[in-house]
């Protein structure tokens, strides 16, 4: 039986972004599929203890990754999928993992995952 590494990058034809958050250094979360690199805000911490490779830890107060608005991330009203791996130690409240909404006037547009 052969043992295969899980470090193989699987891409899908319509995939628009992938932030592995396993860069383990710097102030940027690299998008390895597209051009939507994110800026680390309020000093989230790089770790070497991710499920596969490194990870990024957030303090649960004000750390986040900011990604500039890009048309590639606007999915309209069609079907789409978002996948994340998250480990939390907080068992109370609701925290947003991902948020791309416009709340100017009228109905809220966009999507959020929390």
Describe this structure as you would to a colleague.
This is Thrombospondin N-terminal-like domain protein. It comes from Crocosphaera watsonii WH 0005. InterPro entries: ConA-like_dom_sf. With 114 residues, this protein is mostly beta strands. It has a domain at 16-69. The chain has no helices and 7 strands. The protein has strands at residues 28-29, 38-41, 45-47, 55-57, 64-67, 98-102, 109-113. The strands form 3 sheets. Strands 1-2-5 form a 3-stranded antiparallel β-sheet, with no helix packed on it. It is globular. The relative contact order is 0.15. The model has no long low-confidence stretch (mean pLDDT 84).
Structural class computed from helices and strand pairing: mainly beta
Tally of separate helices: 0
What strand order characterises the main sheet?
A: 1-2-5
Total beta strand runs: 7
Show unreliable segments.
none
Properties at a glance:
114 residues; globular; mainly beta; Thrombospondin N-terminal-like domain protein; ConA-like_dom_sf; two-stranded antiparallel sheet; single chain; 0% helix
Secondary-structure map with pairings?
Elements: E1 28-29, E2 38-41, E3 45-47, E4 55-57, E5 64-67, E6 98-102, E7 109-113
Antiparallel strand pairs: 1-2, 2-5, 3-4, 6-7
Protein name: Thrombospondin N-terminal-like domain protein
InterPro entries: ConA-like_dom_sf (IPR013320)
Organism: Crocosphaera watsonii WH 0005
Question: Could you give a short description of this structure?
Answer:
InterPro entries: ConA-like_dom_sf. The protein has 114 residues and is an all-beta fold.
């Amino acid at each position: 039986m052969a043992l295969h590494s899980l470090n193989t990058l699987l891409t899908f034809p319509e995939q628009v972004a992938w932030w592995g958050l396993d860069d383990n250094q710097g102030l940027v979360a690299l998008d390895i599929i597209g051009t939507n690199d994110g800026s680390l805000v309020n000093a989230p911490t790089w770790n070497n203890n991710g499920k596969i490779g490194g990870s990024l830890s957030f303090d649960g107060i004000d750390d986040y990754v900011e990604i500039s608005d890009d048309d590639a991330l606007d999915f309209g009203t069609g079907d789409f999928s978002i996948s994340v791996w998250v480990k939390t130690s907080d068992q109370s409240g609701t925290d947003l993992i991902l948020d791309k909404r416009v709340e100017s006037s009228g109905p809220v547009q966009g999507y959020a995952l929390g």
